[in-house]
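[recover] target loaded
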């Protein structure tokens, strides 16, 4: 029987007293590589904020291994899960190796003597050795995303929450980062990420949760998605085929139908 690692029970949440998530119930199992999909504003980022206790629910409960997440201290919670999301504002001119080392903060003094060794190990495992002495502000978007993931993995290899980890990246960096996440998932890291690119999600994850207006429309294996479900999720028509090389589902929206939906809303 699969171990439930995170659980949302009848959760409603949002901002300024307005619900963005309504009566959400979701179980995340140890070893999941779960991708949250859906339109902009569907609630993907909000779910990640709830799971990481950045946002408190109006109603319902979120549990980490059976314990209410609001009753877990910040330091203890940070040692069990790490979050990768966009950093707004100016970033100081840290060296990459120093930025990665910040992931050790939840572990306190007990880790201080071996922090540098662990940091070096993570830097090697994530393939950013050649970046370690660079300054953060000189990195490309793809390089910085790898560095952020390295920091998060030093913080916790247990649970990793990522908000749009490959947004605006080229194909090479997208595949590089998703392969890295898949590798750590195979090693036991539970991964939950919000992602826009459907084909990337279908290629790498083992579970898809589709949100629409703060509610779950689909929860299942990638191959269980179909054109009708995708139409309900995105309000446009899709065509899906099986990739002749990988055997996995590939999807594409139909442009002329997209126009039809836009005209129907005018």
């Amino acid at each position: 029987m699969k171990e439930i690692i995170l659980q949302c029970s009848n959760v409603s949440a949002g901002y300024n007293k307005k619900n963005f998530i309504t009566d959400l119930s979701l179980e995340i199992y140890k070893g999941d590589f779960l991708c949250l999909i859906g339109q902009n504003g569907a609630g993907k980022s909000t779910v990640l904020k709830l799971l990481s206790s950045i946002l408190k629910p109006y109603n319902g409960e979120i549990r980490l291994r059976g314990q209410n997440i609001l009753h877990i201290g910040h330091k203890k919670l940070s040692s069990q899960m790490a979050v990768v999301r966009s950093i707004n504002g100016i970033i100081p001119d840290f060296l990459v190796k120093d930025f990665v080392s910040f992931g050790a903060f939840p572990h306190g003094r007990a880790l201080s003597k071996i922090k540098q060794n662990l940091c070096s190990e993570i830097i090697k495992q994530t393939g950013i050795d050649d970046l370690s002495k660079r300054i953060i502000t000189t990195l490309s978007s793809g390089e910085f995303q790898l560095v952020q993931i390295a920091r998060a993995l030093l913080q916790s290899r247990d649970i990793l929450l990522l908000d749009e980890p490959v947004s605006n990246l080229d194909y090479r960096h997208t595949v590089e980062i998703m392969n890295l996440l898949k590798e750590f998932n195979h090693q036991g890291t539970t991964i939950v990420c919000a992602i826009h690119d459907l084909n990337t999600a279908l290629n790498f994850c083992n579970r898809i949760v589709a949100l629409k207006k703060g509610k779950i429309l689909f929860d299942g294996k990638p191959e269980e998605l179909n054109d009708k479900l995708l139409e309900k999720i995105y309000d446009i028509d899709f065509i899906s085929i099986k990739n002749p090389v990988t055997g996995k589902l590939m999807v594409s929206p139909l442009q002329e139908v997209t126009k039809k939906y836009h005209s129907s809303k005018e």
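[recover] notes: The chain has two domains: 4-225, 227-266.
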